[in-house]
Write the structure tokens for this entry.
Amino acid sequence: MRALRRRFPDASISYIVEPHAAPVVAHNPHIDEVIVAPRAAGGRGLVADLALGRQLRRRRFDLAIDFHGGPRASLLTWLSGARERVGYDIAGRAWMYTRRVPRARTLQPRHSVENQWDLLSALDIPGPDPSRDAVQMPVDADAAASVATRLSQAGIRDADRIVVMHVSAGNPFRRWPMEHFVSAAVSIVTDDRCRIVVTSGPSDRGAAEQVIAGARAALPAARAARILSCGEFSLAELRALLDRSAVYIGGDSGPLHIAATTRTAIVGLYGPTLPARSAPWRDRTLPTVSVDAGDLPCRPCDQRVCTPGDYRCLTSIRPERVADAALRCFEA
């Protein structure tokens, strides 16, 4: 968005997003309008999208860019009637665009941001630089106030080092074992200043509670108190929490890339995905550690079927490596 604003400084920029991801772009200073498009199933969803398409067409947009590339995004791009429509050259949907950009059909060790930036290159926008154009999600003031209150109520002091440990992922191929999270947490709180806040998605609250209970049970009472249960955090609250944190630990899922919008140290866990493709896109001078299982014949994969059947790309990442990486971040 920042690059688009540089290229078109006087444009009115609108951003279409589904409800669950709207907080990510809600306060972006380079966007003039956020259009939230709820997703409904079946015929109801198609009717709603056709209605949205008519609204967009009446707006007479000059340019529409489909960064997503999925069937719904392609349809809305076409329905917008924008004079120029930029998207990937995807079989069966390329006709919906006036300007088509090639996209590799196989998994490549190339960052996702660079893949999406190909769409901007078609508009004569110079190539990406993470130091200049890091991912961005400004803090919501109300969310920050709410997080500050919750941390205070949990007994966290200004001098404490908060480690956010995100223990869930919508994709089971990116979910590190719960017992590994427990072991890493137990090792990290040997640092007296560390306090671990365990977070999860709304549907995985049970996983967070399992990690909290397991870590506390493995520790003497004084250290067990350093494993905190602060309830669920919305995306906006998670962003605010990370501003107050020293380290974020989590798999390759949405929250890791929210962490990338901060200056907080990141320890990312990569199973079927590659850091070369999915590492945090931000200033390279910030502490960022990618931990993975190394070369495996089945890695990367399309995350549909685990060929070996044991998710070894995740299970073989040892907790000691993750804890050591987190503790080293304090020294960076």
